[in-house]
Every structure is written in structure tokens, then in C-alpha cells.
Amino acid sequence: MTCDDARAHLPDFLTGELSAKAKSSVDAHLAACGACAEEFHKVSETWMKLGVLPVEQPSAALRDRFYTMLEAYKEGLDARTADRKAEKAFSIREFFSWKRPAFRFAAAAALLFVGLAGGLFVGRSGAFNEKFARLERQVDDMRQTTALSLLRQPSSSERLLGVSYSEQMRAPGEQTLTALFRILDTDPSVNVRLAVVDALFLFAKDNRVKDGLVASLGRQESPLVQVALIDLLTEAREQKAVDALKALIADDKIHPDVREKAKQGVKNLTS
Amino acid sequence: MSDVRNGYVEKLAILFERHYVSLFNYFLRLTGNREVSEDLVQDVFTRILKYRATYQGEDRYIVWMFKIARNAHIDALRRRKEALPLDEQLAEPADAEPLPEDRLEREQDSALVSKALGLLPPRKQEILVLSRFQHMKYREIAELLDCPVGTVKAMIHRAVAELGEIYAALTREKCHDM
After folding, report:
1. Which CATH number does the domain B99-178 belong to among 1.25.10.10, 3.40.50.300, 1.10.10.10, 3.40.1170.60?
2. Which of A121, A230, A263, B55 is the most exposed place for a label (fewest CB within 10 A)?
3. Which CATH number describes the domain made up of B1-89?
4. Nearest to A30 by CA among A19, A20, A40
């Protein structure tokens, strides 16, 4: 065995993966070659030295954050699955099912109507209406506050949760929109930015949202986010996006898949 | 993982419990920062959920998970500020009780090894961490890094030799300071 042959076996020697036959050849070489024996000794010593580094334990907060994120994701997934099922299997029984959010809403509205009628009957409808509207505003304010607070968190999972809260609003306020666009443009996590694109899709009829999305397209660097934005703007039939898409097509540094997607987008929007 | 891909996302908890400490230590060796490492572990599991559909049953889960972990780390490196070195975080507070001599020596040695590891070039540091601490086989590392097994072995050899030199230099420096 030459010195080169012996040293080629060194990595397997370190991890104990050397076959018995190879090990005996290496041992024989080391007994005869002082330079290789020294090299093996030095490298093995350093390898063993790395064993002094202890296995560190993360804080308990990591587990809490993971389970919060998993729960939120599962709830979102269940809701989406239920929506898809409802779309696929429409029937009279399901139409009147308590499981349908629309029916629940209708039932809630009916109860509200009964309540209002009752309120009118006793001559207190004005006060009731006012109370109800105030309560509704409070709930919405609470959602906005929670979402805003989560969107500012350093942890990406909490920001994801904040995005999920924003999706539940009927119309996000100015502050929430500003926070969502800030995240879309600057968040270090591509996942969070993609979640924001999905969330904003729900409010794509709002002109502020459309304008913000068009402006953001030019600022994005991640091909995944660029593609998601192109899909959204094309689906929203946003004509203002055409110039932004053309600018992307003309950009030499752009990913070829993104350029292709932008071309399709221009074609769809101008046809 | 196949169950998670097929919609049983709650089963991700099993994978989390099995791998989160190991992933945390992987990131900690590379970044030297506990908070950043915890964020990265969280990011990995968020990405696993996001990209669960891309998992092919025949893929080795560990390799697939570490591909995600590497990407999360690369993205973080691009964006995050420079992390604090591990020895600074592990440093005892000034008013801490004095440590017994052997423990003190062990911790000083551990801090020195950690510092030496942090001074290796990133590629060598990563290969060494995957092999020595994550106990990945060379062929798995080769698959993960998309390079021949021979290249991984050659880099391991060079990385350990270089680490030994850095460690020796740091020890000399420390003796000189005393």
C-alpha cells in the first residue's frame, strides 16, 4: 500500500467504516511509515477532540412555537379541505347542513333578525343595533391588533400566524395592509412572503391591494414570489401589471421560468 | 413523512420530536447563535409543511430534510446580520460561581474547539458538522451536496487537518496570553 492509498482510507478510518481487510493493510502501512502514522495520529486526535462539544438543548419555546404553527396550519388545511368538499359535493342535505359556514352564517343572521325584531318589539332596537355594531367593530379591531402584533414578531412562524389572522378579516385596515406589504417586500423568509401573496389574493378587488402588488413585483428577488405574484395579478386581470411584467421580461438577470411566466401573463392580460 | 405528504400533517410532530434537537445542534455549530438556530429549526418544519408534496417516497428523509435545512441556512446567511460567536453566548456571567477546575478546563477547551470550528471555511465546516455531529454517511453527504463521494472524503480529510492547525494556533495564542 502506498502513502496515497493509506491516506485515501483516512476518512473511513475516522468514522470506523473501514473494512477489516483495508484496516489491516492500513495498519501495516502505518507501522512502516512514520509520516503517515503521524498524519493519522494528528487527524484522529482532532477528530476525537470534536467530541468535547456537548449536545446543546434548545429552549422550551421552540417546541411551543412548533406546535402553535402546526395547529394553525392544520386548522387552515382543514378549512380549505372542507371548502373544497363543499364545492365538489353540493346537495340539498349539505345545503342545509349545520357544517356549512354559509348556513351557520344564515342561521346566525336569522337569530340576529329575531333578536332585532324582538328588540324592535320592546322598543329598544336602536340601542341593540348600536351595541351589536360596536361589538363587531371591537372584534375586528381585536383581529387587526393581533395580526399587527404577530406580523412584527421576529419568528417566522408567528409572522405566518399573523398573515393567517389577516386572512380572516373582512377588509384589512391601512396599518395591516402596510404591514403585509412591508413583509411582502422585505421579509427574510420566502414562505412568509408567499403566505402574504395568498392572503392578499383574498383582497385583490381592493385597488390599494392591486397597486401594491404591482409595485411589489418589481422589488421581488425570489423567483417563487415573482411567479406567485404574476399568477395573482393575471388572475385578478390587473391591466396595470402589464408594464411591470414587460419590465421583468426585459430584465437580463431574471430567472428563465419567471420570464416565461411573465410572457404568459402579458399574453393573458392583453388578449 | 409519506403520511405528512398525504395530508396527515399532525404526524409532523413525530418527525419534529425525533429531529429538532439534532437540527438545532446542526444550526448552532454553523451559526454559533442559539436564537437564530431555533428560528431556523422552526423555518425547516414550516418549509417541510409547505413543500411536503415534493417529497418522493423513495427519498431518504434525512437527506431531504437536510436539503431543506441547508436552503434555510443559506437564505438566513444572505439576510441575517452576523451572528454572535458561540463562545460569547456560552460565556458565564461575571458574577457566576467559580467552576470546579476540571469543569472549567473542559468548558474552556470546548469553547476553543467551537471557535476553531467557526473559523473553518463554511463548506468544510458544514461537511465536518454533517459527518461528525449528524453522523451522516459520506454517500448521504455526497447526495445532499450533489458531489462525488470522493470529493466529500477528500474535504473531510482537509477539513480535519485544517481544524487541527487552527486549534493548535488558538491554543498557542491562549498560552501566550496567560
Report:
1. 1.10.10.10
2. A121
3. 1.10.1740
4. A40
Contacts of B38 in chain A (CB under 8 A): 58-59, 61-62, 65
Measured between alpha carbons, how far is A67 from A63 in angstroms, rounded to an integer? 6
For the entire predicted model, the pTM comes to: 0.51
Tell me the per-residue pLDDT of B127-155, one tens digit each, with 9 for 90 and over.
Answer: 999 999 888 999 999 988 888 999 999 99
- B51 touches A at CB < 8 Å: no
Question: Within the 11-40 window of chain B, which residues sit less than 8 Å (CB to CB) from chain A?
Answer: 12-13, 16, 20-21, 24-25, 28-29, 34, 37-39
Domain count, chain A: 1
Contacts 24+ apart (CB under 8 A), A15-21: A15/B131, A15/B138, A17/B137
- Half-sphere exposure for B73 (CA within 13 Å, toward CB): 23
- By the 8 A CB rule, do A268 and A244 touch? no
Residues sharing a CB contact under 8 Å with residue A36, sequence separation 6 or more, in sequence order:
A3, A6, A7, A29, A30
Per-residue pLDDT tens for B43-59? 999 898 888 888 876 66
Tens of pLDDT, residues B83-130: 444 444 444 434 444 455 565 666 677 888 888 888 888 889 999 999
Domain hosting residue A22, numbered range: 3-51
Q: Is B60 on the interface with A (CB under 8 A)?
A: no
Q: Does B104 touch chain A (CB under 8 A)?
A: no
Q: Any CB–CB contact under 8 A between A55 and chain B?
A: yes
Place of cell 419555546: A61
A69 closest CA partner among B5, B44, B27, B51? B44
Residues 6+ positions from A19 with CB-CB distance below 8 Å? none
Q: Which among B42, B152, B153 has the least Cβ separation from residue A62?
A: B42
| Chain B nearest C-alpha distance from A56 (Å) | 6
Asked if residue A160 has pLDDT above 90, the reply is: no
Establish if A77 touches chain B: CB-CB under 8 angstroms.
yes
Q: What is the value of ipTM here, to two decimals?
A: 0.75
- Best residue in A80, A163, A191 for a mutation probing chain B (most B CBs within 10 Å): A191
